[in-house]
Amino acid sequence: MEPVYYTVAREWTWEQRIERSRFIGQVAPVDNAEEAQNFVAHIKTRKHPQATHNCFAYRIGFGEHPLTYYSDQGEPSGTAGGPILNALLQQELTNTVVVVTRYFGGKKLGVRGLIDAYHGTALQTLIAAGRTILLPTFTLTLEVTYPQLPIINHLLHNYEGELLSQDFGAAVRLVAKIPEKYRVKFTTALNGLADVKWERKK
Q1: What pTM, to 2 d.p., does this model score?
Q2: Which helix H or strand E contains 162, and what residues bound it?
């Protein structure tokens, strides 16, 4: 039986006040670390640049060793990023990023208080966002000749692939997402074609 993976169902924001500090949780589904970092950067530089802290965590990938990363962003070590990541793990989510923004209200919460505040805000935001089943996929970039394009489109259809972008020049450049369960069959089919260059996108 194949394992089941989950991500958040939608981008979501939820907030609470604790001892006059304002905590804002923001979550989003992401496909890779670059998307997660862009989400964090958008909040830090565009949405809440005046915040006291923008602490975050994300988890990307499948299997036994998904990519995990977190940051306390100036809060005492272990009081913010780790508790946010724990909320992700508690909800059994992957391909998800969480940012908890704090506007300091003038009263210190202490180590225990900070851990509870960041974990609780992240957890409630994740619960409010809901979760959905995530089918493992991988992304390929392809360069094909025009005569090969119908064959590639046929392969994408057969293996439930999703065409993300296409650029028509001297050759056709494609970006496609394929279910992980078809990875071996799909890449084997590609290797059997002449005039097709491809690589797995990281």
Answers
A1: 0.81
A2: strand 162-168
